[in-house]
């Protein structure tokens, strides 16, 4: 199956607010993922608002962590740098704080990048979004 935009989309790209978070420990290629995900959302899908969550799951507490708008220019050369421009951290997973953030910033598409612990948290978050009836994919 070819990669790229699909005929059926869950959100109208013009109404989508996507967020990207990198969690856990550092590994090679995180900036490449952030860059290409941002480029794909903006160029191929036409998403106008992509947010970078800083410092892993801790970044959903935006009183302490800035949200970085991800733009084509902003990610143009990040693949040449090590680490992740978003920062990464272990821990910090707090469902009520994440819910508050998603509602405040109208996030309806969330990309969680990390290892097995990160994705155990992402599964809990996904299940909670269904329970809360939040249209987050």
Written overview of the protein:
The structure is a single chain. The two termini are 21 Å apart. The radius of gyration is 14 Å and the shape is globular. The chain has helices at 30-44, 72-75, 95-104, 116-132, and strands spanning 17-22, 49-53, 67-69, 109-113. A 4-stranded mixed beta sheet has the order 3-2-1-4. It contains 4 helices and 4 strands, in the order E-H-E-E-H-H-E-H. It has one domain: Rossmann fold. The model has no long low-confidence stretch (mean pLDDT 91). By secondary structure, it is of the alpha/beta class.
Please give the share of residues in helix.
Answer: 25-40%
Low-pLDDT stretches are none
Shape: globular
Beginning-to-end CA distance, first to last residue = 21 Å
**What fraction of residues sit in β-strands?**
5-15%
- Helix vs. strand class: alpha/beta
Mean of the pLDDT scores? 91
CA radius of gyration: 14 Å
> What is the count of structural domains?
1
Give the count of helical stretches. 4
Number of strands: 4
Which terms summarize this structure?
137 residues, 34% helix, four-stranded mixed beta sheet, 14% strand, alpha/beta, Rossmann fold
Task: Detail the topology: elements first, then pairings.
Elements: E1 17-22, H1 30-44, E2 49-53, E3 67-69, H2 72-75, H3 95-104, E4 109-113, H4 116-132
Parallel strand pairs: 1-2, 1-4
Antiparallel strand pairs: 2-3
